[in-house]
## 1
Amino acid sequence: RATIIMSIIILSDIHSNLEAFQAVLKDFSRERVDQVLCLGDVVGYAADPDQCIETLHGLTSDVVAGNHDWAVAGLADTSCFNPEARAAVEWTAGIITADHSAYLKGLPLTLCLPGMLLVHATPCQPESWDYIFSLDDAAMSFHHFDQQVCLTGHSHYPIVFAQDTEGTISVIWDSTFTLLESHRYLINVGSVGQPRDGDPRAAYVIYKPEEASFTLRRVSYDIKRTQRKIVAAGLPTFLAARLAEGR
Ligand code: ZN
């Protein structure tokens, strides 16, 4: 009899892209899902904020706040947002239900799970919404969590930093890797709804605790449909165009 391995699904940066979100749901429907984690930015950019919040709320309560969630809820100002992002925040804040606005407002900045810290941007100062791109950024972040693993999103760029016992940090580019007990990890799971690593397919991660394995999955979805909705909603057309490029 085959053993059924449990999976933890890790999502980030859905950004109101319902088609990408649904494609990801379908992709992991064959797994025995034990838990779903979400690293924030449920809304912003695309045209289905209410549907995405509703769907996520039905899946999990393990969700941290992203900068777009906070901006839409009125908790963060949009002065450091680019004009397109700001327009999407204002559009979203104007159409979501009061319940969903309260839901976004109630999201925590971090969540601690056994062996894992969840945060949208950085473990150092979550509410500054800084980015982790370089080895130096990663080195700084490793000082600010005690768990073996810190899971992040925010850059929309999937990448894994591993730190050995000497403190040396390396990047793991493989789409599947196994956690070593001797190492600590800073894992960016990429973006479901607006990838920026040149691959337009939705990104998410399947973690199998029994095997200590992480797998980055990429899933095609109906990008044209999402683009049509963005344009029809009157959102900036740049937000539609970039989805096809994955940039
Ligand atoms: Zn984001």
## 2
Amino acid sequence: MATPTLLDVSALRDEFPALRQHVQGRPLVYLDSAATAQRPRVVIDAVADFYRHDNANVHRGMYELARRATDRYEAARAAVARFLNVADVSEIVFTRGTTEAVNLVASSWGGANLQPGDEIQLSILELHSNIVPWQLVAQRTGARLRYLDIDEEGRLRLDQLDALLTARTKIVALAHVSNALGTINPVREICERAHGVGARVLVDGAQGAPHLKLDLQALGCDFYCLSGHKMCGPMGIGALWARRELLEAMPPYHGGGEMIDVVELERSTYAPPPQKFEAGTPNVVGAIGLGTAIEFLEGIGHEALWAHEQTLVQHGLDRLAEVPGLHLFGPRVAGARTAVFSFRLEGVHPHDAATILDAEGIAVRAGHHCTQPLMRRLGVPATTRASCYLYNTPEDIDHLVQGLDVVGGIFG
Ligand code: 7TS
């Protein structure tokens, strides 16, 4: 068997200009990639290069620049399809990100398919962007929300699924990976069980796409949502994948230019998907940057990324266990989680911990991480969260542990 290529992290870090700086007089230790990743030079250059050379609107010009812009935009769509192992490129809809992708499905598919008494099955670890859009459509349609619980290590309680999934369940919407706990959810099994009762499955892949090998044909979901900025791409771009027959049956989400076929005074007919869901001038440069980010990740290779991630997971679990008074949330075994470490330090408010770490040059997030129901379930108002990506090293985690010593020293 071939040994997986190890990541040359030191060379890789050189590709990320933002990592090479001092903050607060110390070298930056960036541990907030679950909020947003840093960008490699190739992505930054692709964005600048588009504006320098190819800038034109897409799908409408009869001239060279417009053709180039359109070709590059559509090549980015093909890159997303390849990344997700989706055969039909027209099943990829560009959105502003995961949030907009979930809103699109909840509003369009949910508005057309949900009735009073129907059930929307979520989990307690969802981000607000996979809760609030469903609340809005539930209020419009009379459907009800149900929540799958977690166990003490932050894993979904699959034992509850049989009782929760019934003929009333119309859609199951859940995160591939928890942004707050790092838990990798068993999406494939849940898809099978949901399909058994005739429900659709939406996967919030905001934290899945950056870290996991994706094969949507094998995963078996009906909708998959991702954000470019969490996987080295630009902000303000993401994608929705949905089966073509679903996209064809769904009503438009936004109305405007580019999504139509014929416009009359009182009504219109629509373009086929994906254009039906891309009203107005799209984020062309964002899509091109996302396509470049995908090529960048593909160039490194998933095996090397995953091996590196799991090295960070194990190192984080080992080192954080040494910190006095630290309680770590989420699964305690590597393989079941990504390198996202949410924790509480006894007697220290998470905001104070993050502020002291900032003075040490260490960037972490403190707060509810847009998961208030999960925080309530864990019985805490907030946590401190350190989240890693491909450019982080075990030494970054060691710096975090040293920073936590400083925090411990200040709070006695
Ligand atoms: N879903 C999950 C699981 C997420 O982690 C996030 C963003 C979103 C959806 C929303 O993505 P967006 O690109 O549309 O904003 N998560 C976080 C976070 O953990 N810290 O800041 C943003």
## 3
Amino acid sequence: MSLIGKNIVIGVCGSIAAYKIATLVRLLTKEGAKVKVLMTHEATHFITPLTLSTLSNNPVFVDYFDEKTGEWNNHVHIGLEADILLFAPLTANTLGKLANGLCDNLLTAVYLSAKCPVFYAPAMDLDMWKHPSTIRNISSLNSYGNIMIPPGEGELASGLIGEGRLAEPAEILSHLTSFFENGDALKGKTALVTAGPTHEAIDPVRFIGNHSSGKMGYAIAQRLKELGATVTLISGPTALEHPQGVDTIAVTSAQEMFEKTEACFEQSDIIVMSAAVADYTPQTVADQKIKKKEDTFSIDMKKTIDILATLGKRKRDNQVLIGFALETNNELENAKAKLVKKNLDFIVLNSMQDIGAGFAKDTNKITIITQNGKEQVFALKSKMEVAKDICQIIVEHLAKS
Ligand code: CTP
């Protein structure tokens, strides 16, 4: 029960998703949290303050000034007492205000004076979510160190289908719980994570790549950070936002990924290599765009350096080295062979035969194999949850060593 006695202040904005906050408040209070709710005027059209004050067992504040009691709602006081300030649902409007320091209601004033960690769970229609101004505002909030609980995909109130739906109350609860659990389990540790594909240039306009989205590695980097580690993420080309608080180094080719990874290896305690590194790269890169001529065309390729195997040879006893194996057949056998060959502490096996696992998906299904051959099979989960499982194994391993 990591939420017992925690002061959680929820800022509710005017979105139809505000109805989910009743369930969230209930879940949080059941976990022992002390919940205070602040609402914008617009939010009160979607759910009543009476519902939320009854469930939270606390008065709900909407205005700076309570006309009935004559009391001034001291926003500094609310912000300072909170262990967590959570905006849920966060609308595009309030997001814009938070990103730009506007302060025209109680919620925005509390935000500006809060000293505690701030979480935010956006809810908006698909087009709003994808608008460049939303993208810019989200990245501002992330740069202030605020933590996003990402929206889910599915049917939206407008009838559109896509991203933008407020995360489910149980998911929001799990983010907050895991923030308090093991909050500093990896404090003082340095972690290095590789993620994404590599692009191997053929000529100035073409490359050889793969379908890796980088989502798994980014989730691991974020989780390691949440657990208190100092994290460097070496990322191949992806469309993902850099995880907040993580030193992200962008690379393109396998060779570049090797050079940056090698430079960080010595000072790293935890090394997780989740990148889908190209095994071969063109022997030569054409200076000019290759013109279409013959009916068939082939490229001479040479092996890239196996980053993981190279680092495995240099690994010290006090370093934890984790590799990934994406397999289509003879999965366990192949993964175990890689674990030995590359001198790893653990290997995370993804089987392409598992529905919901693999490249560019939001979910993954893994088996973790340890040096003594122990296999731990996990259920299909979101990549964020999978990252938690992997990091938990790291925490337990370090605690034993
Ligand atoms: N890896 C690496 N450098 C490479 C190739 C792979 O560091 N040049 C790492 C990956 O990041 C992953 C692990 O090695 O953690 C296994 O990658 P995978 O592609 O499954 O295996 P390979 O060793 O490349 O073998 P194969 O492609 O033949 O299955």
